[in-house]
Amino acid sequence: MAGQVRQQIDQASLERYLEKNVPEVKPPLQLKQFGFGQSNPTYQVTDATGQRFVLRKKPPGELLSKTAHKVDREYRVIHALEQTDVPVPKAICMCKDESVIGTEFYIMEFLDGRMVENPSFPGVSAEERTEMWKDAIRTLGKLHRVRPKDVGLETFGKPNGFYDRQIKTFGSLAKSQAAAKDKESGQPVGQLPHFEDFVQFFADSKSQPKDRGVLVHGDFKIDNLVFHKTEPKVIGILDWEMSTVGHPLADLTNLIQPWTISNATPNWPRIHADRAFVHPSRSDSTNKEFPGLPTRQQAVQWYGETAGYAIPDAELTWAASFALFRDSIIFQGIAARYAVRQASNEKAKQYGDERVPFAKMGWTMVKDAKAKQGSQSKL
After folding, report:
1. Listed range (60-64, 182-186, 282-286) with the worst mean pLDDT
2. CATH topology of domain 126-378
3. Farthest CA pair distance, the chain
4. Sign of the CA dihedral 114, 120, 124, 129?
5. Which stretches make up the Aminoglycoside phosphotransferase domain (predicted)?
6. What H or E segment, with its residue span, contains residue 351?
7. N or C: which end of the chain has fewer CB within 10 A?
8. pLDDT exceeds 90 at position 3
9. How far apart are CA 109 and CA 195, in angstroms?
């Protein structure tokens, strides 16, 4: 939901820019700020006609990462995908002139639908719950079927070596984020547990999944999707700042993380852990209260059917462990932005505190990946 503007922008300057360059948006404007959007401040813009739009901008101040907050990449990919069957909001304008509101920004269509934070889809029927998950997976399959060169994204990323690049990028991010010091206490954020061991394991090419290259979202999950108000279908994918050409398992493991995290978490509560996703055989599972919720195996099978290839279990486990490692670094980044008071989300500190638990869960899964690879090599 959009509410009070927490990070002010120069509204008069924005209105002058729109009046001159963007006839679709008619000043004067009413601005509200969304609670979602961990890194790029996101605003609801209502123009003089009552039409709503969404504005995404870089955060203010000196940025910790040169690779994050790429709002121009977000604009480029959603604009390119408008000509496909992948559901995205219409791109309205991109402004790279930082003098307008202090940072680059873009404006896109406002999608009037349902945004669901809880992937167990509380309050819907069993049939709708199943179909909403199926359509989320179908939507991911549609994205992965798009050939970048067919939509003018042939220079959007490299077709090979995605995980090697991810290891380098996130490893560098982790080091810079660990050094960030709290604005008040002066204490550094600190490095993740098992960090060097993670890097050594993931960098071993013999353990990595078969190399593939498709257009990936980078953070594909239920709460980055907009569903139709009354129908169980996806009408838009949001938050494209981490999109690139990469490995499809990166998106798939991110989407199925509710099962991964819920069954791996050592203690409760944990962000993104939900007892609805805990295996029904466990006494703490609430799965029976959410009929129609697919199993992790069903979700993976649906994806394989849509994508057109079977996913080896050893590859999926490797990718799932990498996803937890990556998430721990993303949480570390939120902690670092909170430390220097750049975080845009009201729950930034809570999210930042998840970095260590997620790293520990990721390391446990690395051990599982090693065991499966060992068993496979003996066959």
Report:
1. 60-64
2. Aminoglycoside 3'-phosphotransferase; Chain: A, domain 2 (3.90.1200)
3. 69
4. positive
5. 31-260
6. helix 348-352
7. C
8. no
9. 40
Give the tens place of pLDDT for each residue, 189-229.
999 999 999 999 999 999 999 999 999 999 999 999 999 99
For residue 52, what is the DSSP state?
E
Choose among 229, 156, 171: nearest CA to 202: 171
Sketch the domain layout of the chain as residue ranges. Answer: 2-109, 126-378
Q: Indicate the pairing of strand 30-34 with strand 52-57.
A: unpaired
∠ at Cα 98 (343, 225), nearest 5°? 50
Contact 245, 282 (CB under 8 A): no
Measured in degrees and rounded to the nearest 5, phi and psi for residue 320 equal -70, -40
What is the three-class DSSP state of 55? strand
Burial of 360 per CB tally in 10 Å (0-12, 13-18, 19+): middle
Which tokens is 363 given? 């390391």
Q: Please give the sequence-ordered ranges of beta strands (E in DSSP) within the chain, or none if there are none.
A: 2-3, 30-34, 42-46, 52-57, 91-95, 105-109, 214-216, 225-227, 234-237, 244-246
Q: Span 303-320, mean pLDDT?
A: 93
In angstroms, rounded to a whole number, what is the distance separating the alpha carbons of residues 125 and 329?
Answer: 36
**Structural contact between residues 352 and 341, judged by C-beta atoms closer than 8 angstroms:** no
Query: What is d(CA 137, CA 349) in angstroms, rounded to the nearest whole number?
Result: 31
What is the DSSP code (8-state) at residue 20?
A: H
Question: Strand pairing of 42-46 and 30-34?
Answer: antiparallel
What's the rounded mean pLDDT across residues 59-83? 79
Look at the alpha carbons of 123, 126, 130, 135 in this order and tell me if their dihedral is positive or negative: negative
Strands 42-46 and 52-57: antiparallel
Residue 260 or residue 267, greater confidence: 260
Q: Which residue has the tokens 């960090």?
A: 195
CATH number of 2-109: 3.30.200.20
Average pLDDT over residues 278-304: 96
Placement of tokens 């068993």 in the chain: 375
The token pair at 360 is 């520990």
Whether 126-378 and 2-109 are alike in CATH topology: the answer is: no
d(CA 81, CA 84): 5
Residues 102, 10: contact at Cβ < 8 Å?
yes
Task: Report whether 368 contacts 321 (CB < 8 A).
Answer: yes
Residue with tokens 């999944």: 209
